[in-house]
C-alpha cells in the first residue's frame, strides 16, 4: 500500500506543482495515474520514490516513510522512470547484475530470472551489448527487467509501455495483472487512456497539482452521471475552460 498524505511541492519561480495531495493506492489493485502534461504526475512519482524531496506532508510505502525510512522503503518497490536513458555505458548484463548486487539476489535465482525475462522481452541476445547501442524500446525493456528481477512488492511505473512493441507491452500488462492479483501494489502513469480503461481497477486523475478524482471506472461514471468513455470524461475533467 502507498499512502500519500497532505503532500505539497513547490519549484522556485513556478506555481505550486503539487497542492495538498491525498491518495491511497491499495494492495491487490492496479491504479492508473492520469493527467495532462505538466499536471504533476512525474513530480508525484519522483517524491514517492525519494528522487525529489517532499516540501510538506508524508509518503509511506507498506508502512515505511520514504524520507525517514528511505533504505527500507526503497528495498520494497521497483521503479520504471519515464526516460530509460540510464547507465548507458554498461552492457545489458552488467546493468542487471548491478541491480542484482544492490538487492542481494542470490546468483542462481538472479540468473534464472534474467534469462527468463530477457527471453520474454526478446533482448537476451543483446545482453553483451552496451545499453547506449540499444533502441528506446530495448532500453525500456532492460529497465523493466531490472525492476522485475528483484520481485518487489510495489511497482511504480512512469509511462512503462512507451516504446514497447505490442508483444512486450501485452506481456508487461499480463505481469502487472498477475502481480496485483497476488495482493501486491501496481501504480502506473500513462497517456494511453484505452490501456488504463482496459487494465486498471482504479483511476486517479490529477490536474494542476490537485487530485480531482480517485475511484473505479464505475464510480467516475456514477459521479458524473455519464456513459462517456474514460477518454471523454478525462478530457472534460481536465479542460481549462
TrEMBL record:
Ranges of residues in domain ABC transporter: 2-233
InterPro entries: AAA+_ATPase, ABC_transporter-like_ATP-bd, ABC_Transporter_VariousFunc, P-loop_NTPase
Keywords per UniProt: ATP-binding, Nucleotide-binding, Transport
GO molecular-function term, one example from the UniProt record: ATP hydrolysis activity
Pfam families: ABC_tran
Name of the molecule in the record: ABC transporter
Organism expressing this protein natively: Virgibacillus profundi
